[in-house]
Design brief:
Layout lengths: L1 H5 L1 H33 L4 H16 L2 H23 L9 H27 L2 H9 L4 H31 L11 H12 L2 H36 L1
Length: 229
């Protein structure tokens, strides 16, 4: 344990990067998820097809492969376009940005299915009644769709979030100094890799425990009226 205390600053910095990466990726995945859900529920066949291609493609390709494609392939593509058009010079994609974009894009597909299922669970009569009452589409979404969608989506949303947190470990492959990278570097330099991986295990358990408490609070908040009835 002395060696863990000695490298505590490096581990804390890595944990901060991991948490920041997970939270930002979650926010981006919610945006992609809502867009994907509305696309798959659209009345336009083309829009539904685009939404279907997005979710099918992402769920069919390993996360690590997408990570490498976006980080390396995306950088090459941007530089080729910039060189061909002369609109910009050399672009060096930051590992943190690449990690957020990749995880947000990947889990946006899973969130899309979560949100789509939650929206379909809302009784259509409530939406029709809201429109009949003169509510605007924005009011219908804010006052009728969103509160119920959160309640229906929360179990699957919680699972997606916990998987996303674990998937942040993938960014160490592209060189981001997150918790796993820092712990691996420290463990290799001290020849106590097992000890540092145990420390990483406990950090992820703490993050999971805190997330579970927070999401249970959200569940109680959005289910209060249902339980009272």
């Amino acid at each position: 344990m002395d060696v863990i205390f000695e490298y505590r600053q490096i581990l804390l910095e890595g944990a901060g990067v991991t948490v920041s990466l997970a939270v930002l990726s979650l926010l981006l995945s919610i945006v992609f998820g809502l867009m994907g859900a509305f696309a798959k529920l659209s009345q336009s066949p083309i829009t539904r097809r685009i939404g279907g291609i997005y979710t099918t493609f992402v769920r069919s390709v390993p996360d690590l492969v997408l990570m490498m494609l976006i980080f390396y392939g995306g950088q090459v593509m941007l530089n080729d376009i910039g060189q061909a058009t002369g609109l910009w010079g050399y672009v060096d994609i930051n590992q943190f940005v690449a990690g957020v974009l990749t995880l947000g894009f990947i889990f946006g597909a899973y969130m899309a299915e979560t949100f789509r299922g939650a929206m379909l669970a809302i009784p259509s009569g409530q939406i029709e009644a809201a429109h009949s009452a003169g509510m605007s589409p924005r009011q219908v979404f804010t006052l009728v769709t969103w509160p119920q969608m959160v309640r229906y989506a929360l179990p699957s949303f919680t699972n997606n979030w916990l998987v996303l947190v674990k998937s942040t470990a993938l960014v160490s492959v592209i060189g981001l100094h997150d918790l796993v990278w820092n712990a691996f570097s420290a463990g290799r330099s001290t020849h106590q890799l097992f000890t540092f991986m145990i420390a990483v295990l406990f950090v992820y358990l703490i993050i999971t425990a805190v997330s579970d408490v927070a999401l249970r609070w959200v569940d109680r908040k959005y289910s209060a009226g249902v339980r009272a009835s």
